[in-house]
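TASK: fixed-backbone design
INPUT:
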């Protein structure tokens, strides 16, 4: 059993932060490994901004071309969109929140009705943290305090986006921190590889560990 196969089932009911170097790396981990495992849950995707909604649409279009078997799963995803219109990149619109309103409080109110049967994935929220700086971190603390403790949360940030205390606070808000990035090539390497591992964990049965992976022909990570 690979590291990913052993860790993913244990993320249920936890708050997981994925620190990535490339959006593609995070996308493969979430869409090809995490979502299929939790397909029995109600899967929600919270999207912030029209720009990130557009990126999600472009990702969806590329995924269904190369991996059409993912279409049914993605079309079941329920979208909570924070933006200027109700258009969604895929799936179905669950709730629309006007970005010019007090959207953070409204999003928290929506999530308070969730239970252990639900999973929420955050997309585009790194932009919010950059825009609001320290003020957002205070709001983030209050926001996470209002999320039910038994829902499964997947959050993600680029490793190049934050430094020092800002990333440190975000890490503290999550139970597990997973790093996923391209591995440096050695002189004898002939194909791309990825280093994926658990960097922080508050859960005993998810120990700190890492492994090297390659991308298979079917578009999933295989341990080298």
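OUTPUT:
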């Amino acid at each position: 059993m690979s590291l990913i196969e052993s860790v993913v089932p244990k993320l249920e009911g936890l708050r997981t932060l994925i620190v990535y170097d490339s959006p593609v790396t995070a996308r493969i981990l979430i869409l090809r490994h995490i979502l299929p495992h939790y397909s029995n849950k109600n899967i929600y995707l919270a999207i912030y901004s029209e720009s990130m909604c557009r990126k999600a649409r472009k990702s969806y279009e590329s995924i269904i071309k190369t991996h059409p078997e993912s279409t049914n799963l993605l079309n079941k995803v329920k979208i909570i969109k924070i933006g200027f219109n109700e258009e969604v990149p895929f799936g179905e619109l669950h709730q629309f929140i006007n970005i010019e309103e007090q959207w953070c409080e409204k999003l928290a109110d929506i999530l308070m009705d969730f239970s252990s049967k639900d999973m929420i994935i955050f997309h585009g929220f790194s932009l919010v943290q950059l825009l609001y700086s320290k003020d957002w971190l205070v709001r983030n603390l209050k926001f996470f305090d209002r999320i039910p403790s038994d829902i499964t949360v997947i959050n993600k940030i680029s490793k190049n986006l934050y430094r020092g205390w800002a990333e440190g606070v975000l890490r503290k808000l999550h139970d597990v921190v997973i790093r996923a990035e391209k591995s440096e090539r050695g002189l004898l390497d002939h194909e791309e590889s990825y280093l994926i591992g658990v960097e922080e964990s508050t859960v005993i049965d998810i120990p700190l560990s890492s492994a090297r992976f390659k991308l298979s022909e079917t578009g999933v990570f295989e341990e080298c």
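COMMENT: The radius of gyration is 17 Å.
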